[in-house]
């Protein structure tokens, strides 16, 4: 069975960049890689409804913290069989956003910390009730809120179809979310964590990715299939 690593962080933190670096590092070791990205706005109806709500659709849906969290959880629940199959087929499975995102953003919206009821509710819902696979490790891409916000604006300017949603445009929410993420790391919530600085240069990021992959895969873990990485078409940049 392969190792599943979830990459977490604020909107605009650079999660997709790290996922790509991790995949490259694993492929260079001869390991096979599968990647996923959540929410799957184009592949799951629950994620699509949540995405539409984040842009103002569906009345007061976005105002309900728990309703939005359930939609994101159902997206992952729907992908659970694919996640398990990928874990069986590959040495490394990389996930861009996972359960911790639901916990961090929801707790931040509730103005709770990581010890509050919302974080515990997310774990009970996604892991215990819906059976979403638990990752083996998690990586937080830690980024200052102003840098993340600037990246979101630049991304939107470069691609008009990526208008910032209700979460991305809320600076206060992003700041609270960053604090909850740090608390989740401190508590080793759900699985062990590593922390990566978002302002690392390409060379430093590559070294960090190689270190994380070496730690998680070790030596001799490849299944002998040196075909490089296998990247899913539903991966999105975050």
TrEMBL record:
Its EC number is 2.7.4.9. Phosphorylation of dTMP to form dTDP in both de novo and salvage pathways of dTTP synthesis. Belongs to the thymidylate kinase family. InterPro entries: P-loop_NTPase, Thymidylate_kin-like_dom, Thymidylate_kinase. It catalyses: dTMP + ATP = dTDP + ADP. Keywords: ATP-binding, Kinase, Nucleotide biosynthesis, Nucleotide-binding, Transferase. Residues 7-186 form the Thymidylate kinase-like domain. The gene is tmk. Pfam families: Thymidylate_kin (PF02223). It comes from Actinomycetospora aeridis. PANTHER family: THYMIDYLATE KINASE (PTHR10344), UMP-CMP KINASE 2, MITOCHONDRIAL (PTHR10344:SF4). This is Thymidylate kinase. GO terms for molecular function: dTMP kinase activity.
């Amino acid at each position: 069975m392969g190792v599943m690593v979830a990459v977490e962080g604020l909107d605009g933190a650079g999660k997709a960049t790290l996922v790509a670096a991790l995949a490259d590092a694993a492929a260079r070791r001869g390991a096979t890689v599968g990647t996923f990205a959540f929410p799957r706005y184009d592949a799951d109806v629950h994620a699509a409804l949540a995405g539409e709500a984040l842009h103002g659709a569906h009345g007061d849906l976005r105002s309900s913290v728990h309703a939005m969290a359930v939609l994101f959880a159902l997206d992952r629940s729907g992908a659970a069989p694919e996640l398990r199959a990928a874990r069986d087929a590959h040495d490394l499975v990389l996930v861009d956003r996972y359960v911790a995102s639901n916990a961090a953003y929801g707790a931040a919206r509730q103005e709770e910390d990581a010890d509050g009821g919302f974080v515990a509710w997310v774990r009970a819902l996604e892991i215990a009730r819906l059976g979403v696979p638990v990752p083996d490790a998690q990586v937080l891409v830690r980024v200052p809120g102003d840098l993340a916000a600037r990246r979101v604006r630049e991304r939107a300017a470069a691609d008009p179809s990526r208008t910032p949603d209700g979460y991305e445009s809320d600076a206060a929410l992003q700041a609270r979310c960053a604090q909850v993420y740090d608390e989740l790391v401190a508590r080793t919530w759900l699985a062990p964590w590593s922390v990566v600085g978002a302002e690392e240069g390409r060379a430093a990021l590559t070294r960090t990715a190689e270190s994380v992959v070496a730690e998680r895969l070790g030596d001799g873990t490849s299944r002998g299939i040196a075909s490089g990485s296998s990247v899913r078409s539903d991966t999105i940049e975050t």
